[in-house]
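Hi C.,

You asked whether I'd gotten around to modeling the 232-residue construct. I have! Everything is below, sequence then structure, no commentary in between.
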Amino acid sequence: MASIRVASRRNGASRPRALPWRAPWSRSPVEVFARREVIWTSTDKPAAIYRVVSGRVRLMVSRPNSAPALRALLGPGGVFGTRTAAGGPVQVAIAEGAAVWSSLEDDVEALCTSDPLAAAEVAWLLGQSIEGERRRIALLTSANIPPLICRTLIDLAQAHGVPCAHGGTADLHKVTQSDLGDMVGASRPFVSTYLNALKRRRVLGATSRGVCILDAERLQALARPNSSGPPG
């Protein structure tokens, strides 16, 4: 059974690959954004590419007659911008306190034309973003809601979890029940009911800042597409 791997503050095992520090990167300083500050919208001109250097960014998507929904929670190495939002609804990137690198798409394309190594790095980053979106769509169309909640918790813990200080596998901070509902297409009350059932079974625990994954193996089992829930 695969385990949940979280980043350690003492080593770089989970850090993303670094981009080559060349033009236009050398001409584009990293910018720090405060919590709830808007970094980008998909209607911005001219087109640009962004990469999260540190902190977290909430990628929100507009919905008719409703509040924007959380589409993705991006950590270091996460990429967003015009190329990742083409043809879809309006998207907005909002900082949770983040440092972000950005560059105009024309500058990136010019660099990639002249520097094969830089082209490979950019292609790798965009490929990771596209693969993550394909996986998200495949899960949404192939599984019922309870396994989706478990799979989303696992993915979030691997990307944003911190080592648990009280015996669990990982702590996941500042992810709300509404966030989970947005990401799996469920209502907040449904998510709340299911999370409470997982807590009664000691699969999850509660912390002052979020949730704790106590039993990663059982959570992995409940994330299988044919799994039913909530558990009794």
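If it helps when you're writing up: The CA atoms of residues 72 and 222 lie 22 Å apart.

Thanks,
B.
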